[in-house]
Amino acid sequence: MYIITLYGICTGKFALQHMLLGYRKVFMMKLLTITVPSYNSEAYLDRCMATLLPGGDEVEILIVDDGSTDRTAEIADKYERKYPNIVRAIHKENGGHGDAVTTGIRNATGLFFKVVDSDDSLAPAAVYRLVLRARHGVKLRQFHLESHRDVGVL
Fold first, then answer.
1. Contact 126, 51 (CB under 8 A)
2. So what's the pLDDT on residue 138?
3. Closest to 69 in 3D by CA, of 100, 98, 91, 47
4. pLDDT tens digit string along 44-91?
5. Phi, psi of 6 (to 5 degrees)
6. What is the pLDDT of residue 137?
7. pLDDT tier at 132 (50, 70, 90 boundaries)?
8. What does the pLDDT read at residue 12?
9. How far is CA 107 from CA 35, 46, 63, 97, 99, in A?
10. Four-CA torsion 76, 102, 137, 126, nearest 10 degrees
11. Beta strand pairing status for 32-38 and 59-66?
12. Residue 104 has pLDDT above 70, yes or no
């Protein structure tokens, strides 16, 4: 068995271990990460989260509390406790919207990434449509890898 990696070609037992590790990472990975940059968002964070949670277990929601001085951090922690497999609360010093988005990117585990501001709310089926599109994208990429063996596992 040969596996082409970013670091070269692996063979034998190491190739099998590398392949199994790769599968493990894929199965633990979420399909979509949604980052919610939040600064003093206590008045509208609940409404925003109500529109994101229907994405279910395939979605990871990162609430990035950007040094809020209101109850935003407390609300983010509440969602993390209530939905531990979906929501993560990340607390940081205030660095602005762009820094909060960058923090979300650094902590994302999903194959796809989306930013939804804390004062936004999505249409009822919007997250579901995003998940469907992401699933379709993954299937296309898997087909591409399976049909071009020189790119993936040999």
1. yes
2. 67
3. 91
4. 999 999 999 999 999 999 999 999 999 999 999 999 999 999 999 999
5. -65, -20
6. 75
7. confident
8. 52
9. 9, 22, 11, 16, 12
10. 40
11. parallel
12. yes
Query: Cβ–Cβ contacts within 10 Å for residue 66, how many?
Result: 24
What span, in angstroms and rounded, lies between the C-alpha atoms of 130 and 124? 12
One-letter-per-residue 3-state SS of the chain: CEEEECCEEEEHHHHHHHHHHHHHHHHHCCCEEEEEEECCCCCCHHHHHHHHHHHHHHEEEEEEEECCCCCHHHHHHHHHHHCCCCEEEEEECCCCHHHHHHHHHHHCCCCEEEECCCCCCCCCCHHHHHHHHHHHHHHHHHHHHHHCCCCCEC
The pair of structure tokens assigned to 59 is 């979605």
Residue 78 in tokens: 């509440």
Confidence of residue 154 (pLDDT cuts 50, 70, 90): very low
Structure token pair of residue 99? 């820094």
β-strand partners of 33:
60, 113
pLDDT digits 0-9 by tens, 20-34: 445 434 456 899 999
